[in-house]
Write the structure tokens for this entry.
Amino acid sequence: MKALRHILWIILLISHFPVTAQKKNSGSPLYKNPSALVEDRVNDLLQHMTIEEKVGQLSTLLGWDMYSKKRNKVSESEVFREAIQEQHIGMLWATLRADPWTKKTLETGLNPKMAAQATNALQKYAIEHSRLGIPILLSEECPHGHMAIGTTVFPTSIGQSSTWNPELIKEMAAVIAREARLQGGHVGYGPVLDLAREPRWSRVEETYGEDPVLNSEMGKAMVEGFQGTDLKSGINIISTLKHFTAYGVPEGGHNGNAVHVGTRDLHQSYLPPFKTAVEAGALSVMTAYSSVDGVPSTANNWLLTDILRDTWGFKGFVVSDLGSIEGLLGNHHTAASFTEAAAMAANAGVDADLGGKGFGEHLLQAISSGMVSENTLDEAVKRVLRLKFEMGLFENPYVNPAKAAKEVRNAEHVALARKVAQQSITLLKNQDHLLPLRKDLKRIAVIGPNADNIYNQLGDYTAPQEEDNIVTVLEGIKNKVGASATVTYVKGCAIRDTTQTDISKAVEAAENAEVAIVVLGGSSARDFKTKYIDTGAATVDSENSKGIISDMESGEGYDRSTLDLLGNQIALLQAIVRTGTPTVLVLLKGRPLLLNWPSEHVPAILDAWYPGQEGGNAIADVLFGDYNPAGRLPVSVPKSVGQIPVYYNALFPVKHNYVEEDAEPLYSFGHGLSYTDFEYDNLSMEMLEKDDDIRVSIRFEIKNTGNTDGDEVAQLYLRDMAGSVVTPQKQLKAFRRVHLKAGERKTVEFELEAKDMMLWNVRQEWVTEAGTFSVMIGASSKDIRLKDTFKVSRTIKIKK
């Protein structure tokens, strides 16, 4: 037997020799052969790499210091050269980012042409000055536009979801991807799929709201728009899903703090948007800073391996959020050393270290001490290398600077920014049809701290802007009325600072006007006086050396204990309303704010969130009737902080009233008005039960009964009348934005499947249970127009 094994070993060795010799003698290793299979190229390259080179591929360093700009020339920096030679790095993050945190300004940062030149210089050095010639993977922030100078700025995510139009968001995502890729980016951070059920949390603006179905559809649209169908296209990027998982409901609203949700709630509410995005092909996932049930997400093997990879079949790579590996030691205190933190993250399923301080030497130590196996390291490296091959970076690592200069932020992209902003604007109230405004108005007062402030209109994760690129509300109104009307602007007050107040002048402007348009809200605008922690989150620093308080009250790190309009904003609004001049309130903000007084006393209210660079034109289009608003709220608006949580799809039992007030939100999820009216009727349902599935076909009609063309957003909600576990009072299952001309009638069809009725039962199985389900169709979660029921005759186990 031993002799036989010896003979077999010699045969295997001989059979392998010619292949090995061929590789060696050919002068070019297999991984450099573009006609070879990707998996073969990955495995071949891995065999050539040292442990240090493998670990280096997993380090994603901060990128904005990696280039050197001198006048009109840009090249790789000494910092980058050292990182390649000493750390063998494989990835960079935010190379083209510019903002107060990075200290990159319009002068020191890069325009699109120079950005392309910079990334070309980095790739050239990495390929020509590393032993194996591996290109760099460049990740960029892309939530509502590529966060770089000279790119198109779209509404923030909460505004995107207010469109309730996934196809439009997919079109927008494709533009963001094109602009990033033309400048040399490969990975776009986004979409953010956290459910925003805690409005005090600072990052609500980055989410698609409180509902898992709406989040799922918006996330899917972003992934498909980013990645397209061919990563080698030169215009598509890899999508990174954030933040895995349940990051949007931190205890007390404190960003990154512990999350307390049950396993069933995770499965039924918080995980579905990520699962949908993974099924749509997402190739990257970012961990959350927070812990879930006491386990930090960055060290959660159940989340990153059992669920993400083994159950969902995710094939991409997992990246830590910035500094979250080190945070296992410094924040969560679940690791006793940086080496242990690196081991915990790697063994849980983290493939890449954002920031470059979590892995590196610490991961090398963990491997040498046996805390992390080389097989675990190899699998992580494969996931990163695989995408570099699939993007064609080994053959085409460079971009065309002239093309970047021509196509980034072109007229077509700017027009799309206006379209997304138009569709995002939500009409909350319109008493006595004050809106749309007459176009023959002669005297208009535009008042408020957000009426003419470009950065207060754009939200967090926005690069410095040339003023001419942004149309404020004041400018949009002036563009609309031209010389036919006198437009008087008074700021009136600041967002937070009570020393910058001139209410009397604002009152005078309102008294002399036919209408007063008051633009209030919040701000996520960072400035160069703001202080930041290592993760880039802003710190709440109430005053600078001059005693001036920043406008910033939202955006990463700016959590709230109240949701009031801050500073003297309410006092300003009350003074304007008291003049008797018809008043329109326009809100620019990043989170739901308390609007009790305005909702009672102001006749018309528009919510525009942060509408992006074309926000001023879009708002003017709505104010004067050139666009009929159809935005719908993706998040409930509370009456007080004491009501929180107030999201619509809470579990039974139904909430009872408080001593001070009822338990209902001020404005419900899905709410939004129009300049026309819609009628719902003729509901019919057909049900077909199969062996392992159910089909419920639902049809109804919507008629535009007014005199104005407009969009209606039809929403279908479902209630399980008796589940084996507690279920939501109602849950959105389908929606559609429908355009109807005045007097037009259209049939809308929805189809439900067994998975739309499923729940996570006590045996931890996905099942659609036998029983009765109530169908509710209407214009919001509260405004239900049609109802019916159907019965499922038997329980069906869902394959997930």
Observations:
- Residues 2-26 form the longest helix (25 residues).
- The chain has 22 helices and 28 strands.
- The CA atoms of residues 175 and 603 lie 37 Å apart.
